[in-house]
Structure formats: C-alpha cells, structure tokens
From TrEMBL:
Keywords (A to Z) from UniProt: Amino-acid biosynthesis, Cytoplasm, Isomerase, Lysine biosynthesis
Compartments where located: Cytoplasm
GO biological process, alphabetically ordered: lysine biosynthetic process via diaminopimelate
Function: Catalyzes the stereoinversion of LL-2,6-diaminopimelate (L,L-DAP) to meso-diaminopimelate (meso-DAP), a precursor of L-lysine and an essential component of the bacterial peptidoglycan.
Catalytic-site annotation from UniProt: 71, 71 (proton donor), 220 (proton acceptor)
Organism: Anaerocolumna jejuensis DSM 15929
InterPro entries to which the protein is assigned, alphabetical: DAP_epimerase_AS (IPR018510), DAP_epimerase_DapF (IPR001653)
Name of this chain's protein: Diaminopimelate epimerase
Subunit structure: Homodimer.
GO molecular function: diaminopimelate epimerase activity
Pathway(s): Amino-acid biosynthesis; L-lysine biosynthesis via DAP pathway; DL-2,6-diaminopimelate from LL-2,6-diaminopimelate: step 1/1
E.C. number(s) listed in UniProt: 5.1.1.7
Gene assigned in the entry: dapF
Principal localisation: cytoplasm
Amino acid sequence: MKFTKMQGCGNDYVYVNCLREKVDNPPELAIAVSDRHFGIGSDGLILIKASDKADFMMDMYNADGSSSAMCGNGIRCVAKYVYDYGLTKEKNISIETGAGIKYLKLAVEDGRVAEVTVDMGHPITRPALIPVKGEEERIIAKPIKVGGEEYKVTCVSMGNPHAVVFVEDTKKVEIEKTGPLFEHHEWFPERTNTEFIHVVDRNNIDMRVWERGSGETLACGTGACASVYACILNGLTEDEVKVKLLGGELIVRYDREKDLIFMTGPAVTVFDGELL
Ligand SMILES: N[C@@H](CCC[C@H](N)C(=O)O)C(=O)O
C-alpha cells in the first residue's frame, strides 16, 4: 500500500489515496501506522476518497483508531495532496467531511503550494451539539472540576468537540496528567479535545493541545479555530488572531457577518512510502 506522510504545523498524519488503494480496516491501520516505534509514526491516518457531493472526501482516524468528523490541519494537507499528485488542477477545492463540505483555497507560488486557507464553517456552541452536558445555551467560562483543580471552560465544536481553558503559562501545564482527565471527564459523552490557551495580546495567543484519541500533538487546526472563537466569546481578542502552537503558527479569522471561521496555514509533504 502506497502512502504519503504529511504535516501541518507538526500535526502529522499518514495519507492514503483510496481512489487507488483499498483499506479494509481503517481503525486497525490507524493504530498500526501511528506507532512511532513499530509503525510509520503519526498522529493518525487520513484516507482520501471520492465524493459524489464535493471534489474529494476526507475520512480521518486518530492514533487510537477512533474517528473524527473533522481535522483542520489534515484537510489542508488533503488539498495539497490532490493538487500535487495531479488529482485536480483546481486551486479552489471542496472536500466532504463528517462535518459537512469544506471549501479550501491553495496559494501556489512557483508551482508549489505555499499555504492553504480553509473555510472551517460555523462555530457550534449549543451544548447538545458539541456534545457537552449542560442545560445552558452556551458554555462560556463555566467552572469545571478536573483532577481536584477548578478550571473555567468554554466549549465549542468545529465539527468535533473542544474544551478551551485559559492559563497563565502554557509551558507550565502538566498536559500528560490533565489532558486525559479532561478527555474522559463525565461532561463529555464523546470525549473531548482540550486546548490550553495563554492570551498574549488581542491578536496573538499561545496554545497547547491534548487531542482526543492522539494525546498531546504539536498543533490542532480545529482546536486553533475553537480557541479563537472561545477568546472572542470571552472578550479577550479581536476577530483575527495568530495562534502560536508547538509546531508552528496558524492565522484564524472570524467573519462576524457570515458567522464563519477561516484558517490559513502550511501543508507539507514529508515523504512517500510503501507499506509492506
Ligand atoms: N488534529 C486535528 C483534529 C483531529 C481530530 C481530533 N483528535 C478529534 O478526535 O476530534 C486538527 O487539526 O483539527
């Protein structure tokens, strides 16, 4: 089976072109390829498929084999993949996901994809749709007890669940301890991704993320979008913010008129390979 390893801000996945390859058991393959010692090494697996509703379809799996409806860094790489490997000549590409069709724009310089902008759609705050337990209309800075500590959490879905908490210093977060406690907290029936955010100023934030199903990763695109929207809901930033992650930077812009979030960032091919 031929594959390509790609990364966006260090959030790395193994990509398989399912227009050519057949994958019988995606969860099993995701666990195998993600292993950093016995596999290829990645945060998960992304299958590129045909779609009857959009130009292509993205089917994504975390390192533990669980699937997610959306992956922000992954979808930028899918757009780069289909362009670079000649599956399309278009620079405006639509991709079907579990969270609806997303629209992407490639910035190509000297024949190379320099960066990709994604219309990430509407941020979702209704608790039942995230999903997170709660009777209120939106969960903004709500106290939550995690591992004996109290945090204030803001919950947003970008097609997948995010719990955003604000901290003084992201470097001091004991993420290996706290991340799993949030992920499996009883408030989140489908588990959650958790973002730890330090607001630097009204246009810049630092972020660390504990991803559902993959643990700490160097970046999370949906997490960056959810975090910027959480900042806006808490009155902490303007509508355009640079998000500094462990593996790079993303620009996230909230279009207030259309209630849409746009994310711009890199998409990089690491290597092609063949699984034996
Ligand atoms: N890294 C991704 C998100 C991947 C899915 C997530 N772990 C989940 O289970 O929802 C991104 O860039 O958005």
